[in-house]
Sequence to fold (373 residues):
Amino acid sequence: MSEAMPEVRRDAGPAPPLAVLFELSHRCPLQCPYCSNPLALERAQGELDTATWLRVLDEAEDLGILQVHFSGGEPTVRKDLEDLVAHAAQLGLYSNLITSGVLIDRDRLLHLAELGLDHLQLSIQDSDPENADRIGGYRGGHAKKLALAGWVREAGLPLTVNAPVHRQNLEHLEDTIELAVALGARRLEVAHVQYYGWGLKNRAALMPTRAQLERATEVVEAARKRLKGVLVFDYVVPDYYARRPKACMGGWARQFLNIAPGGKVLPCHAAESIPGLEFDNVKDRPLSEIWRSSQAFQRFRGTDWMPEPCRSCEQREIDWGGCRCQAFAITGNAAATDPACALSPDHGALVALAEAESHREAPAFTYRRIGGS
Ligand code: SF4
Ligand code: FES
Fold:
């Protein structure tokens, strides 16, 4: 008697994420008014301990993740950063340190490189030291960043300079590009500020005019040609003046996950601003389970959740409907079409808002502070 072999069924589930962002701490000596962290910042006593972060690194590797980005707040406030970098290297994960650069000295940086750190990303507030320190709310910070870039070169680490731009530093963009070259950066991210978290709170103080944006785009395009082979550019335009949205996070729950300082696993850094999402914590569930089935990840994964016009749009698997957090911030409905899209019924209002705010006198910054929102 012969029996047919049972068909082996595998629940393929979502493909593994490419990268994970470890927000090790919300503590930070800088107070940038465009910080994407939530307004309600986690205090030190709520942060995960070293053993948990190490376990999560193991789980990330098991899940098939290739890159780990150590971020914050300021990740170097954590004394166990060395343990985490060394463990990531042992697991074969590509590690990137995203830092404000003001707390780390030469010895520590060289030691992190020896332990296997692969890459460093340094934020610059402006090329003008005085304005840079004013924007970051930290006197002397700019000079410390320049020193760090020298040690990064000494360590032989590749350096990316991250330059958030807005109406209060755009006039120095050409100098900022020259500064990135002088610092030995291989990549420069010129990123118009995105309006989440503290950036949303300070939107009127940051929003450029359309003319400023167009000028910035010309500057970047000219520099991209002039510096071919010297500096690679990433250029992020402000959504409010775009005609099509960006594929935020490469699409919700498709490529990335964020782990907040207390262990909540988020599909993006601003996801906690959306009501009704349930976030699992690495203290309670393995990362692979969270990636596959957490309510917050499932809610906007793929295209089934989309309303019209996204549902029948040929871009829907290119931009994945844009940004859910922005849709919520502007329309009050996280499942709405991203208003950055010209096909959204809310697009006209978004553009009008940008035009109006950018032409008014800039209000004073509300600086990012724990307990200070
Ligand atoms: Fe993207 Fe939706 Fe706009 Fe189409 S309608 S371009 S899917 S945001
Ligand atoms: Fe949350 Fe874009 S920042 S989806």
